[in-house]
Specification:
- By secondary structure, the protein is an alpha/beta fold.
- It has 2 domains: 67 residues, DnaJ domain (Helix Hairpins, Orthogonal Bundle), CATH 1.10.287; 206 residues, no CATH class.
- Helices cover 41% and strands 16% of the residues.
- It has a 7-stranded mixed beta sheet, sandwiched between helices. Strands 5-6 form a two-stranded antiparallel ribbon.
- Strand 2 and strand 3 form a beta hairpin.
- The longest helix has 21 residues.
- The protein is globular and about 65 Å long.
């Protein structure tokens, strides 16, 4: 929950400055525990966040590791921890992932997951930081943390798409996935993933709202959604691909970080005739293997035919 570009830092959750002393952090932790405890009318998810924040910065060893990895080393170097906090952080969590070298059979994969949003992020962060000048590290957490939310959101969504792609790749050759699929002339109007599996054909959106998702009338709602309609948007983009390739989608899937859902799978039922589920990232493999509830199975010659149609019609952003 603290590794998303959209997430509050451990210090923000505890309500202290990154330069706070160990005693100030301890007092803040106890106060926030009382304020967020469910038995006292607090929010359960906030209560869990407070406990996790304490695990990350509550001891000198943990705090040093957290600071190095999240761009706080300079700020916290004023505290006495017994460690060299001026060491350059070895941060790679938000950088583009290296090529996979695993030799095990992978799903058939086309397109570049998160590629468009990575490019968009780099253009915007450079423009914001210095009118397009080169940055030593555009993924430096200290830089990312201070960027406007709309820029951090683009990076968060790119990371979400890459995480989904990694999960699907490990499902093996029985699965085929197309990433960053164009649905109009506007590259922002794209379908994150089209996944063909023995359990069905699915349109998939990978998101990171940095909060626990809530639902109303078949839609995802919340402050982090920023007024968007993820389910309606996903279904509209799926219809474009369905018409172009003359295929029928069996269901729609929205994938969220595990911390953003109270349960592994939330079934929204049929929305505009299409079964929709919202799943934790860790549950995506299970859903793709077993199928979305109510989705139509694809098998035999139809599976081959659908793959061929999509191969001929899918365009990438």
């Amino acid at each position: 929950m603290f590794d998303s570009p959209l997430s509050a830092s451990a210090y923000e959750v505890l309500g202290v400055d990154p330069t706070a002393t160990a005693e100030e952090i301890k007092r803040a932790f106890r106060l926030r525990l009382r304020q967020t405890h469910p038995d006292a009318g607090g929010d359960a998810s906030a209560f869990i966040q407070v406990q996790r924040a304490w695990e990350l910065v509550g001891t000198p060893e943990a705090r040093t590791s957290y600071d190095r990895g999240h761009g706080f080393a300079t700020a916290s170097s004023t505290t006495t921890t017994g460690f060299d906090t001026n060491t350059t952080p070895n941060w790679s969590g938000w950088s583009a992932p290296p090529p996979r070298t695993d030799s095990r059979p992978k799903a058939r994969s086309y397109g570049h997951p998160g590629g468009w949003r990575r490019e968009r992020y780099l253009a915007l962060i450079r423009e914001w930081a210095g009118r397009g000048v080169e940055l030593d590290d555009p993924y430096d957490p200290a830089l990312v943390r201070t960027a406007p939310r709309e820029i951090r959101r683009i990076l968060a969504d790119a990371l979400a798409e890459e995480a989904t792609a990694s999960t699907v790749a490990d499902l093996g050759m029985g699965f085929t996935v197309w990433h960053d699929v164009a649905t109009s002339s506007d590259p922002a109007d794209k379908l994150d993933h089209v996944i063909l599996s023995p359990s069905g054909l699915y349109g998939v959106m990978s998101e990171d709202f940095a909060e626990v998702a809530r639902f109303r009338r078949g839609e995802v709602i919340g402050e982090g959604v920023d007024g968007r309609a993820p389910v309606a948007t996903l279904l509209a983009r799926m219809r474009v691909i369905a018409r172009a390739a003359k295929v029928r989608f069996g269901g729609a899937i929205i994938v969220l970080p595990d911390d953003d859902l109270d349960q592994a799978v939330t079934t929204l039922g049929k929305v505009r005739g299409t079964p929709v589920v919202v799943v934790r990232r860790s549950a995506l493999s299970m859903v793709l293997r077993q199928g979305v509830p109510g989705a139509r199975d694809i098998g035999g010659n139809e599976l081959f035919d659908v793959r061929t149609r999509l191969q001929h019609k899918v365009r990438f952003v």
